[in-house]
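Justification of resources, computational component.

The compute hours requested in this renewal are based largely on the per-chain cost of generating structure records like the one below. Each record pairs the submitted sequence with a full structure-token output. That output is archived, and it is also reused by downstream analysis tasks.
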Amino acid sequence: MAITIYRCECKQELALDDTMCPACGRKDFPLPNVRRALDPIETGALKARYKSAYAASRDQGTTRLLAALLKTASGSKAVKAMGIATLHVNLLNKDLIKSFYRRGSRINTQDPHSLSRETSDTWANPGYHHLLVQAALSANELGCRWYGSCHLVFRSESIASRASVFWENPRTLFAKVSSNDALSAPPGHRATWENRSRLAIAKLHDRIQADTRCESFSALFIEPRIDPTSDFIEVQIYGDVAISAVEKITICKETMDDTDLESIDVVVRKLAGLKIESQVIDAYP
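The structure output for this chain reads:
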């Protein structure tokens, strides 16, 4: 897709990954992922999808449910799931939560999903994909179970100015459209944090039926299964995230082994010392 050229107030053209104007040194413009979500081509395409969702809802007689979904989406949170061993190391060292690429993670060459990760991430966010911390948009403060049993809820005020939301895992969308030789993700699949509810409506509206219960909305946001292909709306946060930006952590015992279970008490005490709310649950709801 063609991307609208973004210019600094001094009229200097900015590259996709610029965080500072190379001409005047200004930094008071949106970060790359947010700038991309604010592109008029993107916002126009998302607006069309959003309006289409409401038109379809009127035809199906589900407008009241769609309004309830919009309210839920407006209060949704960014939740990052990770294993308890990773969380424990973060807490002990007071480490920043970094992107997959910046924390030195290695691609599993035996896993086809891992092999396509960097290709699809670059395709979705060229030039800055390696700086994005990924999370999932959640309606129940639980993240994507595939990534771990500890679910970190980020404070909205800590990420709002540097977060955007993407339709799904970029790897999934890439697999759907790459056969069309698309050089980048098609428009209408991303939004700013402020407009996350619009993207949620555009994506999820056709999953609502007349008998859908509001209590089931959380399963629309994040597919409740442990699988690398689980569907979710991805939150993309530019830059490292401090542990102080976490407001709550839920630890689920359901899929933990004995070693992980033994770590729970230590982690919970550490969280209490950091004044981070925590809860331990035996199984997923």
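The mean pLDDT is 92. Residues 32-281 form one domain.
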